[in-house]
Amino acid sequence: SFPVTMPAIGLGTAGLFDTTQAIVDAALDIGVKLIDTAQAQEWYDEAAVAEVIRQRNITDAFIVTKVHPRSYSLREMKIALTQSHNNFGGKGTIDAVLLHAPFCWQGHCTPEQEAVSWLDGWRHLEILRDEFDIPHI
Predict the structure, then answer these.
(1) CB 12 within 8 A of CB 65
(2) DSSP three-state, residue 128
(3) How much of the chain is in helix, strand and coil states, percent to nearest 5?
(4) Among residues 14, 136, 120, which one has the least CA distance to residue 77?
(5) Which of 93, 89, 41 lies closest to 67, judged by CA?
(6) Contact 95, 137 (CB under 8 A)
(7) Dist. CA 132–CA 19, nearest whole Å
(8) pLDDT at 106
(9) How many CA atoms lie within 13 A of 115 on its CB side?
(10) What is the pLDDT of residue 2?
């Protein structure tokens, strides 16, 4: 990725569960401009974060999401990125996409998903970057 300026302080949304929308809304009210979310539904509610961003028509926040290790295959990553972009309102609405972790946590992936390495996941993210208009990976 090329050099990027991003807010030094942001809101991480892991573990907010039912309070995700209210906390994201409050953070935006006090001027938070970086929101970190992820596709790991066990801990995050990416759709709830996106709902607040869309409802408030926020265009100046730096949005980061993460791809779960279960989605590191090319096929699954394309599905996951499509869902994230649909959540946030289309391509070009997410500023950065990261790989969430180098491996699956025990019990969160099938053996087939565990067989796809983080390095393969990175290569797939590079392949899909332009298609999904992701400025930073």
Answers:
(1) no
(2) helix
(3) 40, 10, 45
(4) 120
(5) 41
(6) no
(7) 29
(8) 85
(9) 3
(10) 67
pLDDT value for 92? 75
Closest CA to 104 of 14, 40, 17, 36: 40
Report how far apart the first and last C-alpha atoms of the chain are (Å, whole number): 6
Task: Report pLDDT digits (tens) over 39-93.
Answer: 999 999 999 999 999 999 999 999 999 999 999 999 999 999 999 999 998 877 8
Residues 82-106, mean pLDDT to the nearest whole number: 92
Rounded-to-integer distance, Cα 45 and Cα 14, Å:
8
The pLDDT of residue 119 is above 70: yes
Backbone angles phi, psi at 20, to 5 degrees: -55, -55
Please tell me the distance from the alpha carbon of residue 53 to that of residue 65, in angstroms, as a whole number. Answer: 13
